[in-house]
């Protein structure tokens, strides 16, 4: 599961460099121009022109989306203290599994309402969704006890997380590598 989340985040950060085909193969590096025996993942939608966002603005986006899911942002906690890192932010809360999926869907719907562009590569509607806007990337996910071992989570609980990263990786060339995820 951790590998899936990492690949999902990589696919949103570098959609031209990371693609997942229908067979579960992850292609790193040059874009797939000729799929080898399988269809490539759909091309990402172009990001609407939007000015760069600040960390404070992304923090407010997260609070707004959490409220739209019917949650109080204070029920969770920030994963990166304010002012400590201008390129990272996040929020996490312990939620009941029965409610976490619908809360995640409500958060995702609000992000789209706010103009965040969904990444079509590598996401799992039930486990993680990733978005891009204004130079930032947001990963919304749920992680239960098996994916995030914890002594504090019961079997009926999961972590509901939002992770925001501001990355400037578009100029870094990647070698072409193909791996198969099972």
Topology overview:
Layout: H1 2-13, E1 18-20, E2 25-28, H2 55-68, E3 77-78, E4 88-96, H3 97-113, E5 117-118, E6 128-133, E7 136-144, E8 157-166, E9 177-180
Antiparallel strand pairs: 1-2, 2-9, 3-4, 4-8, 5-6, 6-7, 7-8
Helix pairs in contact: 2-3
Offer a quick outline of the entry.
This protein has one domain (2-180).
Description of the molecule:
This protein has one domain (2-180). β6 (128-133) and β7 form a beta hairpin. α2 (55-68) crosses α3 (97-113). The chain has 182 residues and is an alpha+beta fold. The model is unreliable at 34-41 (pLDDT under 50). Helix content is 24%, strand content 27%. The chain has helices spanning 2-13, 55-68, 97-113; strands at residues 18-20, 25-28, 77-78, 88-96, 117-118, 128-133, 136-144, 157-166, 177-180. The chain is globular. The longest helix has 17 residues, at 97-113. The strands form two sheets. Strands 3-4-8-7-6-5 form a six-stranded antiparallel sheet, with helices on both faces. Strands 1-2-9 form a three-stranded antiparallel sheet, covered by helices on one side. The protein is built from three helices and nine strands.
Main attributes?
182 residues; alpha+beta; 3 helices; globular
Question: Rg from C-alpha positions?
Answer: 17 Å
**Number of DSSP strands?**
9
**Spatial arrangement of strands, main beta sheet:** 3-4-8-7-6-5
Q: What best-fitting shape do the alpha-carbon axes yield?
A: globular
User: What is the straight-line distance between the termini?
Assistant: 10 Å
Structural class: alpha+beta
Fraction of helical residues: 10-25%
Largest sheet: 6 strands, antiparallel
Quote the beta fraction.
25-35%
The overall pLDDT average reads 78
Q: How many structural domains in the coordinates?
A: 1
Low-confidence stretches: 34-41
């Amino acid at each position: 599961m951790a590998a899936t989340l990492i690949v999902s985040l990589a696919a949103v950060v570098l959609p031209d460099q990371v693609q997942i085909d229908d067979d579960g193969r992850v292609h790193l590096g040059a874009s797939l121009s000729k799929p080898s025996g399988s269809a490539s993942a759909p091309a990402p939608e172009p990001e609407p022109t939007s000015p760069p966002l600040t960390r404070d603005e992304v923090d407010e986006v997260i609070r707004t989306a959490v409220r739209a899911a019917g949650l109080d942002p204070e029920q969770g906690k920030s994963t990166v203290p304010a002012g400590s890192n201008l390129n990272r932010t996040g929020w996490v809360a312990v939620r009941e599994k029965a409610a976490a999926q619908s809360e995640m869907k409500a958060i995702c719907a609000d992000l789209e309402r706010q103009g965040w562009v969904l990444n079509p590569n590598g996401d799992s509607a039930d486990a993680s969704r990733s978005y891009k806007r204004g130079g930032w990337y947001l990963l919304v996910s749920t992680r239960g006890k098996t994916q995030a071992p914890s002594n504090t989570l019961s079997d009926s609980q999961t972590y509901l997380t939002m992770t925001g990263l501001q990355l400037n990786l578009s100029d870094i060339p990647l070698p072409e590598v193909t791996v198969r995820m099972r």
